[in-house]
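Support request, please re-run this one:
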Amino acid sequence: MPETFASAVIPADAGTVWRTLRDFGGLAAWQPAVLRGALRREDAPDRVGGVRTLFMADGGTVVETLVALDDGERSLTYDIVSSPYPVRSYRATMRVLPVTATGEAFVGWSATFDCDPSEADGLIGSFRDTVFAGGLRALAEYCAPGRSGGPRVENTATP
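Re-run finished. Output below.
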């Protein structure tokens, strides 16, 4: 089963970063690969079992479900339900840890998935370098002290 991982030190405290990440419906606010995100109307942004639909910058649509949210560990895990990516059994986890020496936050974003072996290297690199690392760079900018912290785009609910 292929695995991929990216991490970054975010110039904000762990609590601030966690409040941003734990909003399962708020990914479009900081992830540049996502044009718009929508939670199902009946879902709260922190409800395990919640489903979000992501309308991607490349024109694709990804549907994900929140499978775990742990405020004590500052971690969330989600699965892809459907996407244009040639993956099966995709599960990703994001975790926030304090960097005690500086007051910043360390964020790790990992995923495991199944795919055709010939696709594995390309998918590992794409998720790591484009989706995760690009998203973490944008998260650092979004959470930077002194920034207004407003969303880039508006999230909407879907039926």
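Residues 148-159 have pLDDT under 50 and may be disordered. The two ends are 34 Å apart (CA to CA).
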